[in-house]
Specification:
It is a single chain. The protein is mostly helical. It is 47% helix and 0% strand. The protein has 7 helices and no strands. The relative contact order is 0.06. This is Helix-hairpin-helix domain-containing protein.
């Protein structure tokens, strides 16, 4: 246990020594580069006007150029601030004024019934069982892989169904599968195996 505590103290002391060395090194580099601690302070007073120096005279000021460049120009700040405030006063309010609603919607004309005459009336069968209706819907709208998943329909039967549908025709009941070239027994197989 004593050995563990000694190791911890050794790590802490070595960390403090390395931090002290790093701070000393940073301070040495900073002071050798000519940057003083006062150069980082920004004053809000504008720079004092300096007398003009002729070409033959040497400047007598001992101020560092870094300090001069970091001084804050108060007039520039005032100009920018007043420009921002003027823009804020000119902007419209964030929420637009309410607009009046239209009294009534524009009436749209419904399509004429003559366009419905282009399509033949589909025969709706109400005597079919829900199982047969589901199978007919799947046969009418399913893809090749969907049709092959049905028990009783293979790849050739699926191709025949898709060829029949490609002509623009649809099945109204399972008995219509005969129109696509399938055997009459397919209906019973579909009903018995796909529950």
């Amino acid at each position: 246990m004593v050995m563990g505590q000694a190791t911890i103290w050794l790590v802490i002391v070595s960390f403090l020594v390395s931090c002290t060395f790093a701070l000393w090194y940073w301070h040495q580099r900073r002071s050798s580069s000519g940057v003083s601690d006062r150069a980082c302070d920004i004053t809000c007073n504008p720079p004092a006007p300096q007398a003009e120096v002729s070409k033959n005279e040497t400047p007598t000021s001992t101020a560092r150029p870094v300090e001069e460049s970091l001084r804050f120009d108060g007039q520039l700040f005032k100009d920018i601030w007043s420009a921002v405030e003027e823009k804020k006063a000119v902007l419209p309010s964030p929420s637009p004024l309410r607009r009046r609603r239209v009294d009534s919607p524009v009436e749209r004309l419904s399509p004429s019934s003559s366009s419905d005459s282009d399509f033949p009336e589909e025969e709706v069968r109400s005597d079919l069982s829900p199982q047969e209706l589901a199978l007919v819907a799947l046969i009418n709208f399913g893809e090749h892989t969907d049709l092959k998943e049905l028990k009783g329909i293979g790849a050739k039967s699926a191709d025949a169904i898709l060829a029949y549908r490609a002509k623009g025709l649809q099945f109204t009941c399972l008995d219509d599968l005969v129109k696509a070239g399938l055997n009459k027994t397919v209906k019973q197989r579909l009903l018995n195996t796909n529950r």
